[in-house]
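Course assignment 3, question 2. Fill in each field.
Student: A.L.
Task: Predict the tertiary structure for the chain below.
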Amino acid sequence: MLDLSPFAWALLAFAALVIGLSKTAVPGAGTVAVASFAAVLPARESTGTILLLLILADMFAITMYVRHVNWRALLRLAPAIVAGLLVGVLFLAVADDAWVKRTIGVLLLGVIVVTLVRRRMASALVEGPPRRGAAAVYGTLGGFTTMVANAAGPVMSMYFLAARFPVKEFLGTAAWLFAIVNISKLPFSIGLGLITVPGLVLDAILAPLVVAGALGGRWIADRIDQRLFERLVIVLTIVGAVYLLI
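Answer field:
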């Protein structure tokens, strides 16, 4: 795994920066990092390798935004996320990888359309958290996508966007959600052999770039305009959906 070309190392270094940045400033960008790792490393090993870097970035994010968490929103989502995880397990039992990715890509595009329509219909949009039905739909889809393709980021970004969370509340709530989810996936990754010694060495090399991305992201989050932030989330979610489709 460590015998990589200079271009491959450059791509992984860029992806490591993006991982940190996605956790502290630009949600949805993490899909770009996932795609980069999958393009350079063997598919199974890339999943375990990137998981450890994601957890590292999660730790920085929850520390930076510990005062900006909407715990009520997390509790509202929890049952649906667990249900989505179980549905994902059943789906994986019958679907191949290509079918899984394309199904999620289509669902993500549908989520984007629904979210944009809701935002356009100002008279029908209620400020604050979405209704319980929306939490059930987004939470189930988020649990499903994280189980089958590590693609829950774009889904949950759409939920927090629909809730119209301020930038830091958005980032803090997402940080705690994914920290819990990613840590819970760690024992399964170890048991399945997805985390390897070469992968750990690679993580140690890339970890400083994750930290740099996370710190740089906090600087950006303190200065980014709310409208620009929301547009970036939407654009990067579309990129993630298209990646899964192709």
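Instructor remarks: Residues 6-245 form one domain. The first helix runs from residue 6 to 24.
Grade: pending
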